[in-house]
Design goal:
globular; mainly alpha; Growth Hormone, Chain: A
Length: 422
């Protein structure tokens, strides 16, 4: 008996919740997510222009097909990731995501046809869905309920700052070396780094078990925790989760739309690749860095105010892009600032809100469902942008994005409620 107790105590004390208590593992996961964001950042500046200038595409919808493929693939992977965590450890899924991502930079750099680019984006979506889902879940596991906003803010800050810096770098590289293959081969560094560090990161299953044991609210008898039940609950039945899901969808609809439309819009108005790279890089850099104070603020003042204000600021950013288009660089920079800061307010607050309203027993499925709706926004944004741009023009597409974003913010104000963790 004495021996059993003696061997058990160190194990109990080894697993602790908190940012400071798990700072080494948390930091490793932050660096992993820098690599995750860097890989998807390869496409932000150059890919729409590769479609038009290298492969000669004339339809905007055809150009945006790579974003549709990416968004659908990532969204479905996010949804599956929640269910997969019931069968596999998070670290196993993280490593799988990196292995899937190995061919992506080479396909983007040397694809002989646009169909290869679209296929590479299916793999990129699988990679992003597994790696980004696991890094955010693992960080939430490590810190426990009291610092979720800060944890998600740090995670998303790392990823989206990397997206922005990579978009900026690819713009400058494309100016000096052409649209391909040099800018895309940066991705080899990101894949190698992410895969190597994921081999070092420890799994967080013990932290989830500890939080479950401490949770003030026991799981109600008979409550279903499977993917189907949680999907319905997160998508519609729970008012706050429904509000977060629709806001996430529209937020990434914006991102998918700007991903495809802004390089074409601003090059049409005379800007070069370096200037477009600055605009496309500034948006996610501010989005990324801003999530650190935004995540901390979400823990202090609640999630809902940040979501509503952030969506309205994004809507204003779209209108700025059009109002000042006679000075395209100024229009692009001011729009990027508003979109970046608005999204920074929204992103960590939404993930933290979903975590607040989900019991630890079904939180992974709830986050997977939310991330499904959020990232289906990429595909929806690219589809809407392609249809509107082909029929009404790029300017009308930007106006439609502003209207949808403002409406989503008002729905979030009506549906989302803040909940204090006991």
């Amino acid at each position: 008996m004495t021996t059993a107790l003696t061997t058990k105590r160190p194990a109990e004390h080894a697993v602790r919740l908190g940012l400071r208590e798990n700072r080494l593992q948390f930091t490793l996961l932050v660096v992993v997510n820098i690599a995750v964001g860097g890989l998807v950042g390869l496409e932000r500046t150059t890919m729409p222009l590769i479609g038009t200038d290298v492969f000669g595409l004339t339809s905007d919808l055809a150009v945006f097909a790579f974003i549709i493929a990416f968004g659908l693939s990532k969204a479905l992977t996010n949804l599956a990731a929640g269910a997969l965590t019931a069968r596999f450890r998070r670290r196993q899924l993280l490593l799988t995501g990196w292995l899937i991502g190995v061919p992506v930079p080479f396909a983007l750099a040397y694809a002989p046809s646009w169909g290869w680019i679209v296929a590479a984006n299916v793999l990129l979506g699988l990679n992003q869905g597994l790696t980004w889902s696991m890094t955010v879940n693992m960080k939430i596991d490590l810190v426990g309920p009291s610092r979720r906003g800060l944890a998600t803010g740090l995670n998303e800050a790392a990823g989206y700052t990397a997206v922005g810096v990579t978009a900026l770098l690819t713009g400058y590289l494309a100016t000096g070396h052409g649209l391909r293959p040099v800018p895309e081969l940066l991705g080899v560094v990101f894949v190698a780094t992410g895969l190597a560090l994921s081999l070092v990161v420890r799994d967080t299953a013990a932290h989830v078990a500890l939080e479950l044991a401490r949770h003030a609210e026991p799981l109600p008898t008979g409550e279903k925790t499977g993917l189907k039940a949680v999907f319905v609950r997160t998508s519609w039945r729970d008012r706050s989760l429904r509000g977060a899901s629709q806001a996430g969808l529209v937020n990434n609809l914006n991102d998918g739309l700007t991903w495809g439309v802004f390089p074409l819009l601003f090059t049409d108005h005379g800007l070069g690749l370096a200037a477009v790279g600055l605009i496309k890089g500034l948006y996610p850099v501010l989005w990324g860095i801003g999530q650190i104070p935004a995540g901390h603020l979400a823990d202090r003042v609640g999630r809902k105010p940040l979501v509503v204000i952030g969506m309205l600021v994004q809507a204003a950013g779209f209108l700025l892009a059009l109002a000042l288009l006679d000075a395209p660089l100024l229009a692009g920079v001011l729009s990027a600032v508003a979109l970046g800061l608005g999204t920074a307010l929204v992103y960590p607050a939404l993930i933290a809100s979903v975590s607040d309203h989900a019991h630890p027993a079904w939180r992974a499925n709830a986050l997977g469902t939310y991330r499904f709706w959020r990232d289906i926004g990429y595909a929806a944004g690219a589809l809407v942008a392609g249809i509107l741009a082909d029929t009404l023009g790029l300017n009308a597409t930007v106006v439609a994005a502003a209207v949808l974003t403002a409406a989503s913010g008002l729905l979030a104000a009506r549906w989302i409620t803040d909940r204090t963790e006991p």
